[in-house]
Design goal:
The chain is mostly helical and 157 residues long. 70% of the residues lie in helices and 0% in strands. This is Tetratricopeptide repeat protein.
């Protein structure tokens, strides 16, 4: 029986992440990593993001996504790296996947709205802001509500 294609080969993994995971030298040893080791890699990826080493951070999160393509935190972190690199289309693609997978944190549609604005799609940004506001109200997230209000008033793009 032929082996099932990987998510990257089948096209189910967003293309940008698939390209990163194909280049990630970490993949060889990752399949045997346990939860603690994967958590440690996530911490390394977050540290790389904080340090502004976005390509390296994307490689870490792409490797983790190769193992678990539905891990919301890894998808959101990879999107954050793309957004920080000035690649809003790739970030938006991953953020949309987060929403499709059930991500209900207001930061996800809020960052999607930022990407949509950067891409020149104000109507799509308004829809994303409406969703962010709904999630922020439900979770009583005052900081997200303040960011949404600033974006709506054109003070933050």
């Amino acid at each position: 029986m032929p082996a099932e294609p990987s998510l990257a080969e089948s096209g189910d993994l967003p293309r940008a992440v698939a390209e990163d995971s194909a280049q990630a030298p970490l993949l060889g040893g990752l399949p045997n990593f346990d939860r603690r080791q994967r958590a440690a890699l996530r911490a390394i990826g977050r540290s790389l993001l904080t340090a502004g080493q976005y390509a390296q951070a994307r490689a870490v999160f792409a490797a983790l996504l190769h193992l678990d393509p539905t891990h919301l935190a890894d998808l959101a972190a990879a999107a954050e790296a793309f957004q920080a690199e000035g690649k809003p289309a790739q970030a938006a693609s991953l953020l949309q996947v987060c929403l499709l997978l059930g991500g209900r944190e207001p930061d996800i549609p809020l960052r999607l709205a930022e990407c949509q604005l950067a891409l020149g799609y104000p109507p799509a940004a308004r829809i994303a802001l409406d969703l962010a506001e709904e999630y922020a109200v439900r979770s009583e997230n005052a900081m997200a509500l303040a960011r949404i209000a600033l974006m709506r008033n054109g003070m933050v793009t």
